[in-house]
Amino acid sequence: MALSFRILGPLEVREEGRKLTLGTGRQRALLALLLVHANELVSAERLAEELWSGQPPASAQKALQGYVSQLRRVLGSDSILTRSSGYTLAASDTDVDEFERLTRLAAEQDPHEAVLILEQALALWRGRAFEDFEYEEWAQLEIARLEELRLAAVEQRIEAELQLGRHALLVPQLETLVANYAMREQLRGQLMVALYRSGRHADALEVYRRGRQALRDQLGLEPSPFLAELERQILAHDPKLAAPAHTRRFVDQRPRRRWLVVGAAAAAISAAAIVVALGGGASHRLLPNSVVRVDPRTLKASEVAQVGDAPDLVITSGGYLWVTNDILRDTASSAIRNNGDHTLVRVDPATGKTVVVGGGLSPCGIGADPSGDVWVANCFTKGSGHASNIIRVDATTLAFKATWVLPASQSFYRGVAYGGGFLWVSDPSGDIVRRIDPQTGGQEPITLAASAGALGWSDGYGDLWITDFPQGTVSRLHAATGTTATIGHVGINPASIVVDGNVGWVADWGAPQVVRFDATGVVRSRSIPLPTRAASRPSYVWNLAVGAGAVWAAFPRDKALWRIDPNTDAVTRIGLPYAPTGVAADANDVWVTVRK
Hints:
The chain is α+β, with helices and mostly antiparallel strands. The strands form 10 sheets. It has a 6-stranded mixed beta sheet.
C-alpha cells in the first residue's frame, strides 16, 4: 500500500490520492507521535507517557496495542512494525521530506528556477505543522523545527526574488512578515533592501530603527553586524545595494524552447512582457474533447483522457480531476446549445482512467470542500421534468451523499464556492447568493445590490467575491456578518473569478483581457491584455485558475492558454490545437479541458 503522510497542516494520510480515515482522540495522536519519530523505534513506555501526559493509567499498554491494531487496519499490516519494546512507523513518503527535498534543490538553481521550486515547496503547507496537536508537549520541538524550515524557505524565496529585481512587489509582503516575526533579522534586512531599492530610503532606515528598539526593549541586545552594516550601506548609498542592472524573465532561461517576443504588440498595448510559445511539444497529438496536462515549467501539453463530447469546467479535488459535460458552447459563434452529454467525469490524473458519474445530471457549476467531496449544481431547462438542484458527490465512492433542490433559474450557469464552513451558490438570473449548510442542507438567500455571477472565496479575509456579468462589477460579501457591497468595475463582462491572498483575478468575457484587483479594501484594478489572433468575436476569456506559480486563463477564441506571471504581469501564450474551456491548477500541474 503506497501511503503518503501529510503533516504540514492537519494530519492526513492518503493512498493514491484517497484520504484515509484515521480515527480520533489518542489513536490519531499516536499516529502523529510516531510520525514525529518516523522510521525510528519508539518504546511503548515512552508512547504511553507522551499520550497520557506523564500519567498513563494501568490499562495504557493494552489501549496502546488496540490503537496500533486499529491503525494497521487502516494503513496496512506492515505500516507499524513491532520491535521488542516498542513500535516503528514505516513512512517513506511525507510532505516534510518533499518540502526539504525541494528547498535543497532550489539552493542549487538560478533565481528564476529557485522561485518556482520554492513556491512549490511552500504550497505543500496547508496550515500549521501538526495543526491538530500544536498544544501537545511531545509535538513542540518538531513544530518549532518545521516552522523554522518554513521561514527559512520564505527568506530563501524572497532573496531569489530580490535578485530578480522584484523589490517593489515584495514590500507589502515583507512588511507583514516583519510585523509577525519582529525578531527575525533576515526578514527585516530584506525589507530594508526592498524599500531602499524602491527609492524609500527614509523608510528603510526607520525599519532598522524600529528593529533596534525592539531588540533592546525585549532582549537587551543590539542588532547583528549584518543589520548594522546594512544601515551603514543605506546611509552611504553604497552601490552594492543597487537593484540588479538587468532582470531576466523566466522564459529567457529556456533556450531549449523556441520563443517569439511580440515587441510591437507589447509596446502598443501593455508595459508587461508578452511571450508566445510556439509548438515545440506534443500539443499537435492532442485529441479533442479531452482533459490535458500542461507542464507549468516547460509549457508542453500532454493528453490525460478523453472526457465526453462537451467538456466545460474542470476542478481538482480528492486527488482526482472532475470535468463537467453539459453546456455545449459553439466556439465559432458563442451560441449556447444545451446538447452536451450531461455527465460529470472523474479522472485519475496518474493513470488517465475515467469514471462517469450518472444520475441525470446537467452540471452548470462545480466546487469542492476540504474533505474532497464535490458539489455539482444542475441547471435544468424548462420542460425537462427536473428541478434544479445541487448534489454532494463522495469523491471516492461516487455516491450521492445528498441532493438539495434549488429554486428555478433561467441561467445556464451557477457559481459554486466553498468557504467559511458553508457552500455558496449563485443565481445569475436573480440577485441572490445562497448560503447552504453542508450538514443540514439549510439554505439562506442573501440578496445583493447587483447580479450574482461567478464566485471566488478569500480564505484570508472570510469574504465571498461575486461578479456581475452584465454590469462589469464585483461585489464582496463578508461571510461573518452577511454584509454585502458592490465594490467597483473589473472589466466589461467579468466571468470566472479567483482570489489568491490579497489579489483577485477576473476573466473578461467581453474583452481579451484578465483584470487584476486588490482584494483587501477599495478595489484598485488594472487590466492585463491578452493579444488575440482572432478577429473581433463575441466572447473571449472563459475560465481562470491560480497555481503552479502563475495565473492561467483559458481563451477558446484564440485556441490558447495564457500564463500570467503574478509578480510582473508578463503574459505567455501556449497554443493548443483545440479550444480550451476550463482550467484548474495545483502546486505542480495545470489541467485544461479542450474541445472542437
